Amino acid sequence: MTVRAVITSCGAYLPEEIVTNRDLEKRVDTSDEWIVQRTGIRQRHIAGAHETTSFMAFKAAQDAMMAGGIDPHTIDAVLVCTSTPNHTFPSVAAELQAMLDIPPCAAFDLQAVCSGFVYGLSVADMMIRCGQAKRVLLVGAEKFSSILNWEDRTTCVLFGDGAGAVILDADQGGRGTLEDRGVLFSRLYADGRYKDILYVDGGPATTGSCGHVVMQGREVFKHAVTCMADIVSETLAANKLQPTDIDWLVPHQANIRIIESTAKKLGVPMAQVVVTVDRHGNTSAASIPLALNDAVKSGKIKQGDMLLIEALGAGLTWGAALVRF
What we know:
Distance between the termini: 19 Å
Number of strands: 13
Order of helices and strands: EEHHEHEHEHEHEEEEHEHHHEE
Low-confidence stretches: none
Strand content: 25-35%
CATH architecture of the largest domain: 3-Layer(aba) Sandwich
Largest sheet: 5 strands, mixed
CATH class of the largest domain: Alpha Beta
Helix content: 25-40%
CATH superfamily of the largest domain: Thiolase/Chalcone synthase
Strand order of the largest sheet: 1-7-6-4-5
CATH topology of the largest domain: Peroxisomal Thiolase, Chain A, domain 1
Number of domains: 2
């Protein structure tokens, strides 16, 4: 028997306020046509003062637990992937554990920016495989609006806020083959030589403030296209799979051009790619679980489907995971 970490339920939360490209035209020198043509984004959700990262994580976790009929007292670990915590410390995960009335357990934040959920999925999988947990709550939650320079048209039009959550359960019925349900494979990378093409110009040990997002868009795009093509090809080769074996590509939702380029190089038709960037914008670590929840709740992704999940974020960090849902 092989122990697998199986995604048994999903949840999501999006802030009440929707900001369209037309709304942004009134704030900065941009246009709906320019944003859509270059990014595919048409709107994004922006959190209000009461919608903190922990609040959104709480709502998404509640949704996931309700969808799966999960008793919070059965959760063994809480992982929150975020770059925008409520506080430097304590962690959002610790706050979330208390908010959900989960008994004392492992609870910590993981920071890999837009790759956060893929990193978190790998960590949760290893915890389950090693027997440290039987049930893990994994959340991606971001309030990126709080670290944006709203006068910088190159960044403020790209990002949005939100949270997505999944419950992973230990399944001991696996045979150790790709036919098993659960996380089948993951691969993570980082290359800090490229830290200056996407970063936040502040922090507690430098400026003493949270700072704002700074990005060299063309450089990020170039590396994203290359790294994503490489990681998905590596994932398929490592598992002796062909593109036709993938039912759904679930990419980080940063830019429709990056998503289309990755799908083209992989040979997966866009009809089999989960896309929410047009409605959510780039929600960083929340983007993949939000997209996953959308596809599951809408009936696109069904039990038994093979998913290829991939992301790239600041650091640079990137990674991919192969999951049979």
